[in-house]
Amino acid sequence: MSPGQIADHTFDTGFRIAAVVGVFGSLILFGHGVLSVTNPTHVVTLVLLFPVYLLFVAVALGVWLGYETDETDLERVKRDTDDLQERWP
Fold first, then answer.
1. What residues contact 29, with CB distance under 8 A and at least 6 apart?
2. What are phi and psi of 3, to 5 degrees?
3. Where are the domains of the chain?
4. DSSP state string for 5-67
5. Which end of the chain has a smaller Cβ tally under 10 Å, C or N?
6. Residue 43 burial (CB count, 10 A)
7. What are the tens digits of pLDDT across the range 11-54?
């Protein structure tokens, strides 16, 4: 049994809130001088770590809301070779 529409809506809302909090948190850190726009290390670190933060948020929300997966969800996808171009020598 998969989660319902309420869980879908909660996931979307939670993810959007986390993204907004992350952006505003970064802006606050830039405003207080903790992070600097002129320092390339700060900018690159923020650009590289923000997607990782969003990934962790998505995983945490997914587990909390019951979107758990098992190994059958990770099966390899196979293509049918009925296409003539696939079998062309």
1. 35
2. -60, 155
3. 36-67
4. HHHHHHHHHHHHHHHHHHHHHHHHHHHTTSS-SS-HHHHHHHHHHHHHHHHHHHHHHHHHHT-
5. C
6. 14
7. 999 999 999 999 999 999 999 989 888 899 989 999 999 999 99
